């Protein structure tokens, strides 16, 4: 759970930066929910694993798709095989731990890639606008909001409720 929260701090912000906050969060939610739905269909009626990690791998797929179709980048950074290899390496490194749902992670990655590709091609503007004199790093408000999301005050009740239910 802590790993998903930490990854979401980085990846949700990156997806929102690439596609915009509204489109980015919508596509991310669809990738996570769709990946979990496909996993439930593939496993049948006795499968009870639904988690946020599917959305995290959906975010990796979205970012990979936006990298492939981005304009104004070096040609080496847009090579399809490099993006696919990096995405599969992340799946292998982060999504195959004992007890994890590899099929859900794979469906999240694939659906995120497909939805990210569709969203990136449908947007009328360049995916990442050039820096206009401002710092490319988010403001202190952005960092403090994400820091609060992982603070003990917000994560302790989640941890306590998971301990009570087991």
Largest sheet: none
The count of strands amounts to 0
Strand content: under 5%
- Which word captures the global form? globular
Report the end-to-end length measured between terminal Cα atoms.
15 Å
Q: DSSP helix count? A: 7
The secondary-structure element order is HHHHHHH
The helix fraction, in percent, is over 70%
Short characterization:
The protein has 166 residues and is mainly alpha-helical. It has helices at residues 2-19, 21-43, 53-69, 80-94, 102-122, 140-149, 152-165.
Written description of the protein model:
With 166 residues, the protein is mostly helical. The protein has 2 domains: 2-127, no CATH class; 137-166, no CATH class. The chain contains 7 helices and no strands. The chain has helices at residues 2-19, 21-43, 53-69, 80-94, 102-122, 140-149, 152-165. The radius of gyration is 17 Å and the shape is globular.
């Amino acid at each position: 759970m802590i790993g998903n929260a930490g990854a979401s701090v980085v990846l949700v912000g990156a997806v929102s930066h690439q596609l915009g906050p509204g489109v980015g969060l919508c596509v991310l939610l669809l990738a996570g929910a769709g990946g979990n739905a496909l996993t439930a269909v593939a496993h049948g009626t006795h499968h009870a694993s639904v988690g946020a990690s599917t959305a995290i791998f959906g975010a990796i797929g979205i970012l990979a798709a936006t990298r492939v179709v981005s304009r104004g980048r070096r040609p080496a950074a847009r090579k399809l095989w490099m993006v696919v290899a990096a995405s599969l390496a992340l799946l292998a490194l982060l999504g195959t731990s004992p007890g994890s749902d590899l099929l859900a992670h794979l469906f999240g990655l694939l659906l995120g890639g497909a939805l990210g590709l569709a969203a990136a091609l449908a947007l009328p503007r360049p995916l990442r606008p050039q820096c206009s004199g401002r710092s490319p790093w988010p403001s202190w408000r952005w960092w403090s909001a994400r820091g609060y999301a992982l603070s003990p005050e917000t994560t302790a009740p989640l941890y306590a409720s998971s301990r009570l239910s087991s």
